[in-house]
Amino acid sequence: MRKTLTLSLAAVAAIAAASAAFAQEAPKREPRPPMTRADVEQRTTESFARMDVNKDGVLNQADRDAREKSAFDRIDSNHDGSISPEEFAARGDERREARQAQAEPGQRSGPRMGRRGPGGPGAMGMGLARNADTDGDGSVTQAEFASAALTRFDTADTNKDGTLSREERRAQRGDRGGHREHRRPPEAG
Fold first, then answer.
1. Is the dihedral of CA 105, 106, 107, 110 positive or negative?
2. d(CA 27, CA 30)
3. Element (H, E) at 163
4. Nearest Cα to 186, choosing from 40, 156, 174?
5. ∠ CA(67), CA(46), CA(56), 5° rounding?
6. In sequence order, which ranges of the chain are alpha helices (DSSP H)?
7. Which residue intervals of 103-165 are DSSP H helices?
8. Strand partners, 56
9. Is 36 exposed, middle or buried (0-12, 13-18, 19+ CB in 10 A)?
10. What is residue 59's predicted lDDT score, i.e. its pLDDT?
11. Which of 59, 63, 88, 158 counts the most CB atoms within 10 A of its CB?
12. In whole numbers, what is the pLDDT of the chain averaged over residues?
């Protein structure tokens, strides 16, 4: 009985300590600086180059297949053509460690923190590329990709000053419905 009471009190104390730590206010993030049209052009060029795995100047199924094969090969550490439960678990551990190493002090580092889509941090993922296929041929050229990004920028730039303010970004995120960015708490300001 005495042992049960001691263990119960220890559990309550541990829960109380964890609750107090959880309840502490997280440090406020610095607001992102305004984004210019030139910033979008640069990011679009970099994203396209990263996504165009075979460097043929278009984003298509061949690039998606190459990315999938590369991801598989990274996980298949013994290169036997299959992923064992151990290899799968090791990849998860590596990803967690990498996220924690990249996280700034006080910043959350959950499963999707810092990601902006399939391309990883800062990438304009295949969603934009898929929407950029204006001629419907299943491939996206760099010109189509850039045009889609700049059209989106121009739509969000409501005062047409060539810069997206924090307010314009918030309005743009609101237009995306259930997208992860929409659920982000408002930036301090």
1. positive
2. 9
3. strand 163-164
4. 174
5. 55
6. 2-23, 37-51, 61-75, 85-102, 126-132, 142-156, 166-174, 180-183
7. 126-132, 142-156
8. none
9. middle
10. 92
11. 59
12. 75
What does the alpha-carbon distance between residue 145 and residue 136 come to, in Å, rounded to a whole number? 13
Q: Are 8 and 80 in contact (CB under 8 A)?
A: no
Dihedral class, residue 72 (left if φ above 0, else alpha if ψ from -120 to 50, else beta): alpha
**Tokens at 76, concatenated:** 């298949």
Name the burial class of residue 145, with classes exposed (0-12), middle (13-18) and buried (19+) by CB atoms within 10 angstroms of its CB.
Answer: buried
* Total count of residues recorded for the chain: 189
* 31: amino acid identity, one letter: P
C-alpha–C-alpha distance, residues 110 and 20, integer Å: 20
Helix axes 85-102, 61-75, angle to 10 degrees: 100
Amino acid letter, 143: A
What are the structure tokens assigned to 178, written together?
């259930």
Q: Which of 29, 18, 40, 62 is nearest to 122 (CA)?
A: 40
Lowest mean pLDDT among 45-49, 92-96, 180-184: 180-184
Query: Can you give the residue ranges of every domain in the chain?
Result: 33-183
| Whole-angstrom Cα Rg for the chain | 22
What's the pLDDT tens digit per position in 15-72?
Answer: 655 555 555 555 666 778 889 999 999 999 999 999 999 999 999 999 999 999 988 9
